[in-house]
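Slide 14.
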Amino acid sequence: MTTIAKYTLVKLINKIKSKEISAVEATNAYVERIQKSKNLNAFVTLTLESALEQAKKADESNKKDGILSCAPIAVKDLFCTKNVQTTASSKILKNFIPTYESTVTSKLWNEGAILLGKLNCDEFAMGSSNETSAYGNVINPYKNNNDTLVPGGSSGGCSSAVAANLTSATVGTDTGGSIRQPAAFTGIVGLKPTYGRCSRWGIVAFASSLDQAGPMTKDVADSALMLDVISGHDEKDSTSSNIKKGDFLKNLKKNIRGLKVGIPKEYIVDNMPKAIQSLWDKGIAWMKDSGAIIKNISLPHTKYALPTYYIIAPAEASSNLARYDGVKYGFRAPGKDLIEMYENTRAQGFGNEVKRRIMIGTYVLSSGYYDAYYLKAQQVRRLIKNDFDNVFNEVDTILTPTAPSSAFKIGDKREDPIAMYLNDVFTVPVNLAGLPAISLPGGLDETGLPLGLQLIGKPFDEQTVLNAAYALEEKIGFQSQVKDWWM
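Slide 15: predicted structure.
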C-alpha cells in the first residue's frame, strides 16, 4: 500500500486504467497513510468513508474513463465543496457547508477524481508558514534534527500532504507565492498559472486581483496533467480568460535547446544564504547543459514589489472579508444588539494576522490615504508588469530561486510579521504581473532540507514554463528524502 501512495499521479492513473490496481486499493493506500499521519495536521476535514465508497462503486461499475480516473485527491480548504465543510481554516467559517461546488474542484470530480478531504492552510490564505490557521500548525514532513518545521504557506497543508504521500496530487491557491513557496519548503512541484487561466469561482477570496488556483504535485508531468483538467474559461468568473488552453501533458518535452533564459540581477538580495546562491548557480549551469541560452536581465522595480503587494492585497482583503459578519453563515458571537454582534463575531472569529491585514487594508483605502497608498501601489504594479513585458522581448523564461531560505522552525518568525513577509520576496512580483511560474525542487541545503528553483513565463505560456521545468527536473534528478518519521 505504501508503494502505491508513492506513485506519481500519471503512473497511478495508468495502473488504475490498466487494472493493475483497483480504485479501492489506490484509495485505501492513501486512507491508511492519512490515518497514521494525524500528527502532521495536514487535514481540516476528512471524507475517507465516502472516498472508499466512491472507489468501490467505480470498481463495480468499471467506469474509469475520466482523465483523473479514480485518483484520490485532497484539496485546499479554500475551495467550496458541495455538502462538505469549507472553513478557509478560520473560526469564522466553522461548520460552513457550501451548497455548491467550485469550478476547479468540479472539473476534478468530473474527470473521475475522488475527494479524500480538505487540507489545512493559513487562515483565509494569509500567511507564509501555515501558522495562522485556526486549526493549528501544519508540520513539514522534512525534519531538521529534532526541530519541527513549517511547511510554508498559505498552502501548507497541500505541500505537506503531497510530500508525505497523503494525496496523489492537490490544488492550492497562490496570491503572493502560496503555491510555490510551500512547494520549495517540502520538495515538491508547485505551479501558479497565469491570472485568469483557472476559474476563481467558488474559491474563498483573499485578494481578487491576485488569487489564482494551481496544482501541487510530485513532478512536472503531474502538474501538466492537473493543469489540463483545472484550466479553461468559466462564464461564472468575470476574470476568467477566454483563451484556448493547450494540451499541456501531451506537448511536454525536454528539448529546450535555444531557449532564452533570463537571470535578473535584482533577485540577488542582501544576506541571501550561500545555499540559495549556489542552487541558483547550479540551475543556470543545468540550463546551459540543456542547450538553453543564458542572458542577464534587469527588473528594476522588483525592489518595490513587496511593499506594493502588502498594500494591494490587504486592501482587497478588507473588502472581501467584510461579508463575514455572523448574519448569513458561519460563526456568530452573541451581542446585545446588531452592532455588538458584528463586533464580537469579527473580533472572536478572525485570527490576529487576518485582523492585521484588514486594518492595513481599511487604512490604505480610507479618505485621505487612498491616493497616497492604494493608488500609488497600483501605479507601481503597472511598472513591475512593464519590466516583465520588456524583458520578455528578449527571453522566453526567467530563472530565480523560489524562496530566500529553506523551511524554518515553527515559531521562529511568528512574532515578526516583516520577517515573515520577506519569505515572499521572489514570488510576489509574479502575482502582481499576473504571470505563470513554477517551483521545482533543486536540491538540499547543508542541513538536508529542500530548496526550490522558480521559472517564470510569459502570460498564458505555461507550456514553455513546463517544458523548461521538465528539462531542469531531469538534470536535477531530485529524490524525496521524506522518512515517515511521524508515523
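Speaker note: The CA atoms of residues 264 and 298 lie 5 Å apart.
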